[in-house]
Amino acid sequence: MTPLPREPAHRIENSQLKKLDNEPAFKVIVNKEYWNSAAILFVYHSNRLSKLDHSITHTTRIINSFVKHQFNCESDIIKILEQKPLMRREIIQHYCLMKEIFEGIKKYMLLSVELIQSWHRVLMDHIITNKGQYRAEEIVSENHIFIECQQIPKMMDSLVRQYNEYRAQSKQSPYALAAWLSHSFLCINPFSDGNGRLSRILENYVLFSYGFPCPVSCPTHDHEEYQQALSLADRDFVNGRNTSLLAHVILKNSNSIYNNYLLNKILENEFQ
Predict the structure, then answer these.
(1) What pTM, to 2 d.p., does this model score?
(2) According to the model, what pLDDT value does residue 27 have?
(3) What is the pLDDT of residues 151-181, one digit of tens each?
(4) Residue positions in the annotated binding site?
(5) Using CA atoms, how far apart are residues 250 and 180, in angstroms rounded to an integer?
(6) CA count, 13 A, side-chain hemisphere, 107
(7) Which residues fall in the annotated binding site for ATP?
(8) Which residue, among 225, 267, 258, 232, has the nearest Cα to 45 in the 3D structure?
(9) Residue stretches of the chain with pLDDT short of 70
């Protein structure tokens, strides 16, 4: 089994990436209403990328109802699951995990295998039976054979160790590191389901650790570019993991959600 390529994220050289890394997005604190709206967009687009056909209308209504009634994700979620419980869990648990990571980022700065497994349990609770447990079967997609399941524990240990080493370095691009972690996790594909959704949550985990103030999603018009970025990274293992395009997608989407916030603030001031 070939080990994961050891390519520090800061080796991704790109002038535009370096320039936009200095944008003031990380210095802005958004209000809770905007944060929730950004989280709704994230959950909707992340589910769509995982081929879960939940409309933006349903996603918005379900999350807003959850927030309005201040349900506790662990003990009270059953109260809003009378109809379409699977769909509601796929939406609410996605939202709950994102909120938990954002609010607890200071205690989550050091990534661990146990932490990733606990996040998977929240995301996939009552959706699959082996939530938080590594898959015990081999997985083949339409055009890819994933690593053997017996290799998963040591590869996940290595992934977490490498991430913590890279994160401790001072000259890291948040976007490059988020792309590296997300794609590396997808390559291992450690769980039987939910890997794509968790990989995008891991992207946001990295951004939150650098102070980004709200979730970053991948809008529908960027879904094709996102898939192309993953394919590019898959193809270039001979020369080292190339996640530069994925880093650009994350960067572009983070700036989009930030610019949307600034536009709203300008409109508020204009029409007071």
Answers:
(1) 0.85
(2) 52
(3) 999 999 999 999 999 999 867 789 999 999 9
(4) 193-200
(5) 11
(6) 5
(7) 193-200
(8) 225
(9) 1-29, 71-84, 170, 236-240
